[in-house]
Amino acid sequence: MEWGAPGFALLRLSLATLSAALTATGATVDVSQLPPASSALVDFTRDIQPLLEQSCLRCHGPEKPKGGFRLDSREAALKGGSSGVSIVLSNSAASTLIHAVARLNGMDEDLWMPPEGKAPPLTQDQVALFRAWVDQGLPWSTSPPPASLVVEIAPTVGGTSVSGNESVFREHQWTPEGWNGGAEQFDLHARLDDRTKLTAEGHAFRDDYRLTLQLERRDLGFARGGFEQYRKYYSDRGGYFATFAPPIFTLDRDLHLDLGRTWIDLGLTLPHWPRLTLGYEHQYKDGEKSLTSWAPVTQGGVTRNLFPTSKQVDEETHILKFNLDHEFRGLRIEDDFRAEWSQLRASRASPVQSPPGSDMVFLDRAQESHESFHAANAVRLERQVTSWLFASGGHLYSYYDADASFGLDETYVSGPAGYPRRWRSPSIVLERKTHVGNLNGQFGPWDGFTAALGVQSEWNRQRGFGDASFDFELPGGDYFLQPASQESAVDRVTVTEHLGLRYAKIPRTVLFAEGRLQQESVDLAEEQLGGDNPHRRDTDTTTDGRDFRAGFNTSPWRKVSFSASYRWLDKETHHDHLMDVVPTPFGDFPSEGYSAFIRDRDTQTDEVEARLAYHWSARLKTILTYRFVSSDTWTSTDPVVGYDPITFAPIPGHTTPGTRLLSGNSDAHIYSVNLVSRPISRLSLNTTFSFRDTRSASAANDSPSVAAYEGRIYSVIASGNYAWNARTDLLLNYAFSHADHDRDRSVDGLPLGIVCDQHGLMTGLRHRFSARLSATLRYGFFLYDEPTSGGFNDYTAHTLFATLSYRFP
Description:
Structural class: mainly beta
Number of strands: 32
Distance between the termini: 34 Å
Largest sheet: 26 strands, antiparallel, barrel
């Protein structure tokens, strides 16, 4: 799990657990779809253990099992998880574990085992074995398996030929042109004795490597570690403007970032002891990436931001982590600690015109550095208090401290004589402390009714201060210095309440409703003394948020399932500006600085979602989904007049009368159709078509540079598998997307918008020579067409790869 600041702040403080518990399917599933239980006597080591290792233990092993449900021992399997008991001995038809592995109609697809994309679903014969295992009393062999060694390796060789813009192709496909090869996958699984396993897996390609190692001894501990690195590519092209010569600019550089990490974890898993894990991880980024802030270009008195810009990045992070997980008399205790030390060095250079639109050109060179320390500790408790009450809670403490510096220098390049500027911020300090507390309870079920209640409180205090200087060069090489000091303080308190209700008494139907209320109070104080923009502000902000959702899912007939929901969100923010002044040696003067003239903002969102699934036959299933999202934002301001700083004349378009107005609105319609079919016994097809129509507008539409946004995206994803014979398969994957966001305002504003078509086709032939040896030949075709770039970003690419897979023994 990645623990960024927002993600770590929640750190599974039980709302996710409760949400999963509320989606338990109960009586809504259609057990008539289950295959008959196998009549054979089940041998756990031969029949069940391989299935558990292949499809279940990744999520339900001893380490942080999903939903608290473990399948690594008979005792844990019978105990169940946070959603209750999942196995009913000698009654597989009533066991939710069997419903999940069989993927029955009426069951939430999020509860399927294994989850989509994690491992192949179990076959009917495998589900029949699972049913027999439960019906025969869940036998669990204790006989030691023999020592074994299994090695699988898949060497690959091939290459990619690109015609057109190679840098855009690499950015889209994350793969280089030219020859490539290596090991597409290698796996080693060794059972050293009845308690010890060794696993190694990974791949090795050009600019893409991964190796993981794990040594595990049951009832003692484990050691695991690894290394990975991959390359992310960026296009070096800027914007397109047909009337300029050239109409598109390029940096003519190979832009890419190398991202990697090295890690090691040591764990202790002694029986009846707390489970302990200690780990270290090193992450890094190194290279040059493109930026979206293009530099201005002037030709014939017309200025447009078209010139591409880039940024050099050198970043590394050291992470120390510790986890404790223990269960004592039904109370589960988990403690997570994480400490990060980060260091960033970045630089960039880009041409600028000062003032904008003039012939005076400078080269801006910026350098920045950042060093930080972040430590956080989260404690979580959970317990099944009674048969109808599951309770959980936790606390998080987070501390963040950072030092940064920034410098920007201008160098005169061309045009009329100009005087360069420079910015200096040699020391910027930021400190932040956070406390988060969380309490939750799940109540029921009572006659089909279940309720969940949760409350979370967060307190955050942040302080920042630093020195800066904005200087002008004078004739003769001296500088006119404008030193400034800056300081800010933010105190934030947030309280969130959550209530979820679920009713499953109606046959084949589940009704649900949930609501979330949030109250937030923010005290912001900021001050700058000196410089070109001195100010002193103190603002109190209060925010009230409401989020309600209700809906149902039903399967009235065996072949049909339908679900629908409606969601309403409202967020009101009020600003009380206690102080907004300009400090001077002659006293404080009133200010109208941004954003102190904004009084309140209100955003309301409506969301409707519906899903219909119909099983026409055993060979055909369709799923139709529709989603509509509409959002409106109102803003109230004080009267403000924008003045030119030289002439003091009012600036058209920079004045607001001070009223409540509709400052922005957006609408999105999203449609999708999924078709799963098996027209003949050897052919399976899966096709998804989606259409997204979006529109957004703001109150600044009278400005030529701000156009109302409208766009449509069509996409098709199709995959197929044809079993030519018992040893040979034909594979096909096709993806197509069409985007139409063309809003060309090049005459009076910016050339916004894009129109493009993208095709991707992958075909393959796989042949199994024996149980150990198989070969795959794959061909790929990629086409990208972007008329709004004048064809400069277009490409056509062909890939051809051959893979030989060998398994020993």
